[in-house]
Design goal:
alpha+beta, NADH Oxidase, homodimer
């Protein structure tokens, strides 16, 4: 199943096709493809080239590692994410190497993660980010050190058949994708003032 | 000038070619291309589909708007960014619509911004994010309301000739791009523990 963005203005096909499904095939991801995902994250831009992102990765073949990540998810997410062959936890390093605060730590981790997600799309994979996980449990079970922040969990795999989902989740899987219109979040050089660049 | 990533593992050409130059051509950006940039940001994923990102945009043809953004930049950035035909300020909405804190506001603004930057690359444009700007001045001059956070400024345009830059900036423009190795930021399901997926 694909669910391309119903875009108002033309965008690149990779961006149009990226979406966050809940149905995954149980086929594993080839290790070289996983390496490409992290390589894509690696080349994201960052404030002062601080590269404040980190990723924990677990594949289903390694049951103890996989379960450690899976168990951090809230139950509603475990229900469908447990079919994904790969789980990630993104982590942000809150200070620069010199100890000063990096106010872009989460922002830049988001940029690296979006690179990873777009690379997944390019490889025929799907990736679904989740805010719904137990942060303190992740911190403890994954031994995240002080100064590092667990940010998001990500389920990755090949797309699966929505028929595998519960009725409730299948309904969400096929419902239309919605977004604010561009004029609701783009303004002139004053917040709230319409830009003449947008009709 | 191009400066593709010297990637260790294969990544998509758009991600490989994205970089942050300081040399811009003064040719304006076609309005329909600008609209595609914002459309790309629009379709980024976000926690609870909160879409916490916003963008202020100024084109050089509108001098008062452009100068308002340009003057927020620290002088070192003004020096080269003043050649770019378009300046943006990204802004994060710190709460969800229901008033609860969105801990992913900056993260998701980063994801939307990376979509925008990749779309720029696809259109033959270059985009350079800057942390170096006066946040309080941006907040005041651009009337950013309480609950919203000025995040990053972005110079966008067609690539220019590095000969236009000062000796010091030209040297930075051609120096090799550096990144941590993947094994420095990807671990197993325990922080700091090497993943067997990476050779």
């Amino acid at each position: 199943m694909e669910k391309p963005a119903d875009s108002q203005y033309q965008i690149h096909d990779l961006l149009r096709r990226r979406w966050s499904p809940r149905a995954f095939d149980d086929r594993p991801i080839e290790p070289e493809k996983l390496r490409s995902l992290f390589e894509a994250a690696r080349w994201a831009p960052s404030s002062n080239n601080g590269q404040p992102w980190g990723f924990l990765v677990a594949v289903k073949e390694n049951k103890s590692e996989y379960d450690r990540l899976l168990n951090c998810l809230v139950e509603g997410n475990q229900q469908w994410a447990s079919r994904a062959p790969v789980l990630l936890l993104s982590v942000a390093m809150l200070q620069f190497e010199d100890g000063s605060v990096n106010r872009h730590a989460l922002h830049d981790t988001g940029m690296a993660t979006e690179n990873l997600v777009i690379q997944a799309t390019a490889l025929g994979l799907v990736a679904h980010l989740m805010a719904g996980f137990r942060i303190d449990q992740a911190r403890a079970d994954c031994q995240i050190p002080e100064g590092y922040e667990p940010v998001a969990m990500i389920a990755i795999g090949y797309p699966g058949d929505p028929a595998q989902l519960s009725d409730r989740l299948r309904a969400r899987e096929v419902q239309p994708r919605v977004r604010k219109s561009v004029t609701e979040f783009v303004y002139s050089a004053r917040w709230g003032q319409p830009s003449s660049l947008l009709p």
